[in-house]
């Protein structure tokens, strides 16, 4: 037998076994890859690419470069001190004339307005007036037309526009902005809200995660230890809301929690409270509704891990003399940790992106980051800000995931 | 739609400040009044709008449930008076109307409101006044919410569009009352997107919809005033006192040019103010 293989392998036309094995292995890998290819493509096209494109929006903005090419060109000679000279103003006038003819002046105004509130209307009116200018010198004329063009910070802003990339949106998302000499300064207090919003988003997410673990753990334990007949019924009660639309459950929260809602009416008729308690449009409402929605996400992984824990382990601990609490705490509880980790991680990450629930049952001071992303996209049409906020949330989430992985180890997480 | 040259809307109902901004940006057709065959002078403030025909006049008012609040608010100052009328108030989640009311309640004369709002000090003063009731406000975003908030007893009074309140009174028998003091009067306009391929039909429609008879008939369905002054004579006298255009209801006319110009910046500040 040994000599035979040796003979075959030695035949010059034949392929060595090692190569053959590799071929088989490669074919196997290719087959596996072909199987996942459709999903991979789907995820790439519908998920990864759009996210990358949106994140690109956070740093890329070539509005000024594209719509004011002459001014941008002329500005490269400006040293950034005081006001630029006549050449730049002449370029500005010709750019504004074009923008007025092509109706792009509002876009220029909008872009400048992001950094300098109040600039929009002045840019459009300047463009209209500039279209009638025929001869220079333009500098004095433009400053007379609108004080905007005599402002040093406006020119700093335009000079920054020479690059198609800007850090402005990312800076704004962490409450910084450019000063009049393009130096980075803190945002004025009436605009500085985003650090609070980030902390609030993470704070609410952590609190909801803790609440769901505290509420879900005992129920999961009960589910895992009850006989199948009764645990099935209980399971249906857990999963039924899980299958109900998020919007329906949030609206149900409104019905329950409002001033004269079910909860307040019951408490009042039992004479527990005399004044209706404020349960909605504040943090309480947000936390209650979010906890309700997230409960199954935390509970189910804990439950499925508990199902795999043999009851014999606790019995063994008890027979060796451990008290009921000691046996639970030293033997049973550590075994449930992978489930708790999985459930908490799932709930925490889902909570970070909550939008509709805080919008419907929270007050203005309970809105989380996604609310502002939606606000910038739908209301203010400022995609740069929306992208920057989204990018920061995504990075923060990945960082937290990394920390979690370091502390707990993602291989410790079990869904069952 | 206009920029991509695939105009599928022939006629659009736009608000005042949008009519000004879209007109400036060249998104709307300039109205050819001769072609329309209507007299421009008969329309409310039509000389200020080159791209629209005033369609209906509405008012942002304060409303309350008479069954729950017998002694309701009398002036806009009562909206800010938590001692006199304690409880939650519903307000539109937008600086529009709220900034105006804050200044009027703070003692500013109606005719000076926009002059003051054009200055940073005026805006600061308005936000400061709003600060005093901030924690007692339930913010709403769509016109259907205020009647619901009142009916649920979630608020004791609320900002609302007058048509919605009258509609609830008429159709569900609620005893909602409108306080017309400092009502913010605004109107909508019919406009045509630039490059509309069915321009003639669009004009025909607007000529009909903006005619005195059609606008007077509209008041049978919702209590919004006509933009065409000739229509007032044709309105059912029963409905007349419910319209924002009734002679004794003229509160404060919204300054559309102001909102077109400053609206976005004020909205940003308002959003940041809310989030604090």
Q: CATH first level of the largest domain in chain B: which class?
A: Alpha Beta
Helix content class of chain A: over 70%
| Average of pLDDT of chain A | 90
| CA gyration radius of chain B, whole angstroms | 19 Å
Structural class of chain B: alpha/beta
> Helical percent range of chain B?
25-40%
Q: Topology as H/E string of chain B?
A: EHHEEHHHEHEHEHHEEH
Q: Which quaternary structure do these chains form? A: heterodimer
Between the first and last Cα atoms of chain B, what is the distance in angstroms?
37 Å
Q: Give the uncertain stretches of chain A in residue-range form.
A: none
How would you characterize the overall build of this protein?
The complex is a heterodimer of chains A (416) and B (276). By secondary structure, chain A is mainly alpha-helical. Chain A has three domains: 2-59, no CATH class; 63-166, no CATH class; 194-412, MetI-like fold. Chain A is built from 20 helices and two strands. Chain A has a two-stranded antiparallel sheet with strand order 1-2. In chain A, strand 1 and strand 2 (184-186) form a beta hairpin. Chain A is extended. Chain B has two domains: 12-57 and 187-249, 3-Layer(aba) Sandwich (D-Maltodextrin-Binding Protein, domain 2); 59-183, D-Maltodextrin-Binding Protein, domain 2 (3-Layer(aba) Sandwich). Chain B has helices at residues 16-24, 33-36, 98-105, 113-117, 120-131, 145-151, 162-172, 199-209, 212-218, 256-275, and strands spanning 12-15, 53-65, 89-92, 137-140, 157-161, 176-191, 225-226, 252-253. Chain B is built from ten helices and eight strands. In chain B, strands 1, 2, 3, 4, 5, 6, 7 and 8 form an eight-stranded mixed sheet that branches. With 276 residues, chain B is α/β, with parallel strands linked by helices. Chain A binds chain B through residues 103, 106, 113, 117-118, 120-121, 124, 190-193, 196-197, 258-260, 280-281, 363-365, 367, 372, 375, 379-380, and chain B through 21, 24-26, 88, 93, 138-139, 152-154, 261-262, 264-265, 267-269, 271-276.
């Amino acid at each position: 037998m040994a000599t035979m293989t040796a003979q075959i392998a030695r035949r010059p036309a034949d392929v060595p076994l090692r190569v053959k094995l590799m071929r088989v292995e490669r074919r196997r890998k290719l087959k596996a890859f072909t199987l996942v290819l459709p999903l991979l493509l789907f995820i790439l096209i519908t998920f990864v690419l759009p996210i990358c494109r949106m994140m690109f929006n956070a740093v890329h903005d070539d509005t000024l470069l594209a719509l004011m090419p002459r001014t941008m060109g002329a500005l490269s000679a400006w040293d950034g001190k005081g006001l630029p000279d006549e050449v730049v103003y002449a370029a500005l006038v010709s750019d504004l004339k074009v923008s007025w003819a092509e109706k792009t002046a509002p876009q220029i105004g909008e872009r400048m307005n992001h950094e300098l509130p109040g600039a929009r209307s002045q840019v459009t009116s300047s463009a209209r007036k500039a279209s009638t200018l025929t001869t220079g010198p333009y500098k004095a004329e433009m400053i007379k037309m609108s004080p905007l063009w005599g402002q040093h910070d406006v020119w700093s802003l335009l000079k920054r526009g020479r690059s198609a990339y800007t850090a402005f949106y990312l800076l704004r998302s962490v409450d910084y902005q450019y000063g009049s000499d393009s130096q980075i300064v803190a945002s004025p207090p009436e605009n500085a809200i985003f650090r609070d919003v980030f902390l609030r988003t993470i704070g609410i997410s952590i609190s909801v995660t803790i609440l769901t673990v505290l509420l879900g753990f005992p129920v999961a334990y009960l589910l895992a230890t009850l006989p199948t007949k009764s645990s099935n019924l209980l399971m249906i009660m857990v999963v039924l809301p899980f299958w109900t639309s998020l919007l329906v459950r949030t609206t149900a929260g409104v019905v329950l929690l409002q001033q004269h809602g079910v909860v307040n009416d019951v408490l009042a008729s039992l004479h527990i409270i005399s004044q209706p308690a404020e349960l909605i449009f504040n943090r309480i409402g947000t936390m209650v509704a979010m906890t309700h929605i997230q409960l199954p996400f935390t509970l189910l992984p804990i439950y499925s891990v508990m199902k795999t824990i043999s009851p014999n382990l606790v019995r063994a601990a008890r027979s060796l003399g451990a008290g009921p609490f000691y046996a639970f705490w030293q033997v049973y509880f550590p075994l449930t940790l992978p489930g708790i980790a999985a459930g908490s991680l799932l709930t925490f990450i889902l909570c970070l992106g909550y939008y509709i629930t805080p919008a419907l049952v929270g007050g203005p001071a309970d809105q989380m980051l996604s609310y502002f992303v939606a606000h910038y996209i739908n209301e203010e049409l400022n995609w740069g800000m929306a992208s920057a906020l989204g990018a920061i949330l995504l990075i923060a989430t990945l960082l937290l995931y990394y920390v979690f992985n370091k502390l707990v180890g993602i291989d410790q997480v079990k869904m069952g | 739609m206009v920029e991509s040259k695939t105009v599928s809307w022939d006629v659009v109902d736009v608000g005042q400040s949008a009519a000004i901004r879209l007109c400036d940006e060249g998104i709307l057709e300039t109205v050819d009044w001769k072609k329309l065959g209507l007299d421009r002078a008969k329309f409310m403030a039509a000389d200020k709008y080159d791209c629209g025909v005033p369609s209906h006049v509405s008012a942002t008012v304060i409303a309350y449930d008479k069954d729950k609040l017998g002694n309701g608010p009398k002036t806009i100052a009562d909206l800010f008076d938590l001692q006199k009328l304690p409880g939650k108030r519903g307000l539109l989640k937008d600086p529009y109307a709220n900034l105006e009311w804050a200044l009027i309640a703070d003692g500013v004369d109606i005719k000076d409101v926009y002059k003051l709002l054009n200055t940073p000090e005026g805006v600061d003063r308005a936000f400061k006044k709003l600060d005093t009731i901030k924690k007692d406000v339930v913010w709403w975003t769509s016109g259907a919410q205020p009647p619901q908030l009142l009916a649920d007893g979630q608020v004791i009074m609320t900002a609302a569009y007058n048509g919605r309140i009258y509609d609830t009174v008429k159709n569900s028998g609620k005893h909602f009352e409108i306080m017309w003091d400092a009502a913010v009067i605004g109107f909508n306009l019919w406009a045509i997107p630039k490059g509309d391929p069915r321009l003639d039909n669009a004009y025909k429609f607007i000529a009909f919809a903006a005619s005195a008879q059609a606008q007077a008939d509209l008041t049978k369905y919702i209590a919004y005033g006509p933009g065409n002054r000739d229509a007032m004579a044709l309105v059912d006298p029963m409905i007349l006192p419910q319209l924002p255009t009734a002679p004794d209801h003229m509160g404060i006319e919204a300054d559309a040019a102001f909102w077109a110009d400053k609206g976005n910046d004020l909205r940003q500040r308002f959003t940041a103010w809310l989030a604090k």
